[in-house]
Amino acid sequence: MKTTRDVARRAGVSSSTVSHVVNGSRFVSDDKRQRVLQAMDELGYEPNAVARSLKVSRSNTLGLIISDISNPFFAEVIRGAEDAAQANGYTLILCNSDEDPAKEETYLRELRAKRVDGLLLTPAGQAHEYLRKLVRARFPIVFLDRDISSLPVATVLLDNEAAAYAAVSHLVRLGHRRIGAISGRPFISTTMERLAGYARALREAADGVDEQLVASGSSRIDGGANATEQLLALDKRPTALFSGNNLMTIGALSALAAHGLEVPGDMALVGIDDFPWADVLRPRLTTVAQPAYDLGRVSAELLLKVMQAGLPTVPERVVLSGTLRVRESCGSHLGGVAIQASAPSVDGTALSRAGA
Amino acid sequence: MKTTRDVARRAGVSSSTVSHVVNGSRFVSDDKRQRVLQAMDELGYEPNAVARSLKVSRSNTLGLIISDISNPFFAEVIRGAEDAAQANGYTLILCNSDEDPAKEETYLRELRAKRVDGLLLTPAGQAHEYLRKLVRARFPIVFLDRDISSLPVATVLLDNEAAAYAAVSHLVRLGHRRIGAISGRPFISTTMERLAGYARALREAADGVDEQLVASGSSRIDGGANATEQLLALDKRPTALFSGNNLMTIGALSALAAHGLEVPGDMALVGIDDFPWADVLRPRLTTVAQPAYDLGRVSAELLLKVMQAGLPTVPERVVLSGTLRVRESCGSHLGGVAIQASAPSVDGTALSRAGA
DNA sequence: TTGTAGGCGTTATCAG
DNA sequence: CTGATAACGCCTACAA
Questions:
Q1: Nearest nt (C1') to B26 (CA)?
Q2: Do B93 and A96 touch (CB under 8 A)?
């Protein structure tokens, strides 16, 4: 591996001149510049970003800790974050916490050791001590998808309450009153908020929530199937199901099929998260599409902003709204309906901002 | 940010002692070790991996350049690679080339600059110069999913020829003779090989290939839909369709639905790549499941091996076999059939190895 | 317009 | 068993 000094020697200049040619950081005469360029080429010189990082104490690298890479929802998030990072000259180190706070902490430490310039995180658990330390040290960090309200951290969220409300209201509008809920992993904000939206829609329908109708599906396919089984076993079966995320919706569909139940004939179904293949499922699924790509992109952009500005006292919060896509799994309809976000939408991307 | 020297000063030892405590690289008396540990804790010391990398010229980081992160197939690949990397103490830098050789080259250069210890790559194009250079410099690199035969590089592939052959033979067995093919991005090995398997199956059926029946779907959803349209417009329509990857299969399904055609009643359909939600699609799709997770995992493991061993003269090649999953989209059946790989299978994971 | 030299934080060698 | 010191490759005052 060649160094600036090798190049310098070969070009008959000093290593600082080489450095300045590489970075365009000061004027270099045409003559010398050419000689340097040629020497670099001949030697196959490749700058050493590690040494550079050590010197300038910046790595142009962002860490991204995602709780479950294999969920297509997060795959889109990653893509959004990667695009935004790349567009700003940053590179992404990807880590998969598997919803495990211990793994999360290990990665946090590792990324910190690698001196990433900022951190993007879907928190797997609560505000554990290591996370608090990071925040106290004012390290640039952005939470996405999930909120830890006890921590003053810039955050990008989906409007889960509104999404669930829209989904369940849709069922109510169609006359359903016994609506089962397949809820996600307990103790994370998305689950709570979606449950809250479900409850609000049912309260408005003047019935309130029957606790029996809420089953935990742990945000996974098998969990969704189990929860559905559980709801089907009830004395008074629900007439409709609300599923809290894409994976659990798949589980619900397969459990329903196993019982020979038709959707929507025997059971209506609405889910959160759209699928690229939603138009190809039979029945075509009514869903609330969440802007996964934008969630990733906006998070990375916010992180870059935080990195530049230093942390403000009141961390910024961004809430992105979803879109109810009415298809046929609750009965036949057509079209898509934009959700009125609890925080007002601001532009065409249905992106809303609140906080400082 | 604290350094070893800060810790050393506080603990009243030398910085080399601190280093050795951190790395367990030589014996340190219990007394001093305790003092060091305590000082580290009090100061909130975090080792600087950048400085370490500069010194030891290893970064414990692998680069992964994927051609399309949003394809769920590659999402699984990434997960496999990440798991294997993590299990061996490596961290993954993820890049998305978007099938663009120019982007690929940029990333290659960037990762090289960051001094990753090895590189995992789904080549987007041909053997362009920069890639050749890398290989000539004997930089540890593994290709996955796609072959560039002109380059002597360790490679992990799927047995695409056998997969396509199995899929199309299945249709032949059911009596189909006019079988349309929706092929993927031109000029990449996976596409060629799948086409070859398709052709072999048709030759065996004693008809050979009708060129009109092959339409390019560019490996994307919209491409799959377009190709399907094209095949439907033919004077003599095919009675069955073979789709070259998951995305194009979705496109095909939606185009068929748009024409009011039932699967398999009006048109049989078999695709390469299984879906987690395949059991939930109606009709349930007959597919050849490709071991995406293993592709990622095995590639990373092979890369680590290459990094340790130095490159052998004849680069290793690994071929992974898929599994035909017969469901109902070609007519009703049940069960799964393991494919006889062209290279013989070796163990329960249907993994086969060839070459040195 | 260019060169010299010091130091980023760590590890490894060599003494003690 | 422990410490001093040089070096990894680069950037950036500062000097010329």
A1: D1
A2: no
